[in-house]
Amino acid sequence: MEKKQLASIRQSSRSGLRVGFDLDGVILYNPLRFARPVIAFMKKVFLKKKNLHFHYPKNFPERWLLTVYHKFSLYPASGFNEVKKMSKSGKIEPYVITSRYDLFKKDFERSMEQIAAKKIFKSCYYNQDDEQPHLYKERMIKKLKLDVFFEDNWNIVQYLNEKCPKTKILWIYNFVDKRIEYRYKFPSFKKALRYLKEYI
């Protein structure tokens, strides 16, 4: 059944699967992403945050902390070479969609240069209008009519899985979230790509 589903997606795509990739924690390995579930839990307990909402950095300390977080996106994740191969062969039409805010435009451009993105991806997008990350990604997924999207933030995965039923959301989880049940969950970017590669 799963094979037929992905095969039908491929047949409907003119130049291979239209695949979107988040940046930090997906395309770029970032060890600090393991702290994300802890931060989300603290928000719920101490700030009583019940609805999905992402804080926008309004002052220097907050912006500095996010800048440091981006700096820890040190190198392409294991498996990135497979993205290059699939893109070059035309099996996928890849896009980068990151929710980095406009104030991190230079960091985004630096990251794109770091991975030679122009040679690999159809287009690369960042959150230049400072939308809520989950809403921004929903809008871009629908605008680009993506068949598959790779994401590492569980809260965003849940949201996109509900709001973008035509797109298969692949989740790169970390050990803190290991017990969460989800059909398309993978412990690493490399293994998620292996799953995708089997059917294209």
Description:
This protein is of the alpha/beta class. The chain has a single domain (2-197), classed as Rossmann fold (3-Layer(aba) Sandwich). 42% of the residues lie in helices and 18% in strands. The protein contains eight helices and eight strands; from the N terminus they run H-E-E-H-H-E-H-E-H-E-H-E-H-E-E-H. The protein has a six-stranded parallel β-sheet with strand order 5-4-1-6-7-8, with helices on both faces. It has a two-stranded antiparallel sheet with strand order 2-3. Helix 7 links the parallel strand 6 and strand 7. Helix 4 runs parallel beside helix 8 and helix 6 packs across helix 7 (154-163). The protein is globular, with a radius of gyration of 16 Å. The two termini are 15 Å apart. The model is unreliable at 38-43 (pLDDT under 50).
How much of the residues is beta strand, in percent?
15-25%
What number of structural domains do the residues give?
A: 1
**Helix-strand pattern:** HEEHHEHEHEHEHEEH
* CATH structural class: Alpha Beta
- Which oligomerization state do the chains in this entry correspond to? single chain
Based on secondary structure, the structural category is alpha/beta
Overall strand count: 8
Secondary structure elements and pairings:
Blueprint: H1 2-12, E1 17-21, E2 28-29, H2 36-46, H3 60-71, E3 75-76, H4 80-89, E4 92-101, H5 105-114, E5 123-127, H6 133-144, E6 148-151, H7 154-163, E7 168-172, E8 185-186, H8 189-197
Parallel strand pairs: 1-4, 1-6, 4-5, 6-7, 7-8
Antiparallel strand pairs: 2-3
Helix pairs in contact: 4-8, 6-7
